[in-house]
Design a protein that fits this description.
By secondary structure, the protein is an all-alpha fold. Helices cover 67% and strands 2% of the residues. The chain has 14 helices and two strands, in the order H-H-H-H-H-H-H-H-H-H-H-H-H-H-E-E. The chain has helices spanning 11-18, 21-40, 48-57, 62-89, 97-104, 106-120, 124-138, 144-151, 154-157, 160-184, 193-205, 227-232, 238-254, 260-294, and strands at 301-303, 306-308. A two-stranded antiparallel ribbon has the order 1-2. Helix 4 (62-89) packs across helix 11.
């Protein structure tokens, strides 16, 4: 906690490092969990797309709660990355190796939480993401089938396991990773009122994406953070693109609390990895733009309850 007589930070670096990135991420997570509970009461894992569309178009204030859950979840993950970047920038490694690995494991778990949220939508983006995730998981030797049965198993069991992991499994695992950190540092809602108001305003003003089925398309984009990996799958096998390449940056992150020379090498590797991934993301994004501009008339959508019109702003 800052003291009253502490000088205000000067310079861009000091201002960025003095921001409450971790507190912002935690408040965004709280909002995401609370809004997720409201949505979960209306969600049906047996009919994911129809259920999502019903929440958006039929349930009173459903579009608001879905938007609040969507934007607060995005904010949580982005602010979590900012918090991690601030720690690395300050060169603060006051953790043992085991404590650091446990804490930073929250990043891939948070990514999985965000990813399974996209899959649960059951729309074109969610179906594409789920199919690719299953394919990547099954490509892992020895443990692939067992791991897929735990995490996804969409082709055999639908969204039930994805829903259970999103709602319980990954939340419990992520909470275990960050619990020692949360015990040391607390946050208060009154310190994050502007962030809360911004998320509420976005939820009122903006709609949440939902992509109807696009029959005949050869390329459907996954979530924004998945585009680079999706592009990499065009060039190398699923195991190397979806397991080995992401594992390298996670291992580099885990190795950071070591002697300075090795730490600098890991930091440079992480920076170069992110730059290369940004390039792949841009290539994949540029690839799907003609698809998005040529398929704006693929509505209404046929659902188990009959035709359902998807508003223009949700596509």
């Amino acid at each position: 906690m800052e003291t009253a007589d502490k000088a205000a930070p000067t310079g861009i670096k000091n201002r960025l490092l003095s921001m409450r990135w971790g507190g912002h991420a935690l408040v965004s997570l709280y909002i995401s969990v609370l809004s997720g509970i409201v949505i979960g009461l209306q969600y049906n894992a047996h009919q994911p797309f129809y259920s999502t569309a019903t929440i958006e178009l039929v349930v009173p204030f459903g579009s608001f709660w879905r938007a609040l859950h969507y934007y607060s979840s995005q904010a949580f993950f982005l602010l979590l990355l900012c918090h991690l970047a601030a720690i690395l920038w300050k060169n603060d490694y006051s953790y043992s190796r085991s404590a650091w690995i446990r804490l930073t494991a929250a990043v891939p778990i948070g990514l999985l939480l965000l990813f399974t949220g996209y899959v649960l939508r059951g729309d074109a983006t969610g179906e594409a993401a789920g199919a690719i995730a299953e394919h990547i998981t099954l490509s892992m030797p020895l443990i692939g089938e067992s791991l897929n049965n735990i995490l996804f198993d969409i082709s055999a069991g639908g969204m039930k396991k994805v829903y259970a992991n999103h709602l319980i499994g990954l939340m419990v695992l992520g909470g275990w990773c960050v619990w020692p950190h949360l015990r040391r540092y607390t946050t208060s809602w009154r310190n994050h009122i502007p962030l809360t108001l911004i998320l509420l305003a976005m939820s009122v003003a903006l709609t949440t994406p939902m992509e109807p089925d696009r029959i005949g398309l050869l390329h459907i984009a996954g979530p924004w953070f998945f585009l680079g990996l999706q592009e990499l799958l065009h060039y190398i096998p699923a195991f190397w693109a979806g397991v080995f390449v992401p594992a390298t940056i996670i291992c580099a992150l885990f190795l950071l609390p070591v002697e300075k020379k090795t730490r600098n090498r890991c930091l440079w590797f992480i920076i170069l990895w992110l730059l290369a991934y940004a390039v792949l993301t841009y290539i994949s994004y540029a690839r799907i733009q003609p698809v998005n501009t040529s398929t704006k008339t693929l509505i209404p959508v046929q659902t188990p309850a009959g035709p359902l019109s998807i508003p223009e702003t949700m596509r």
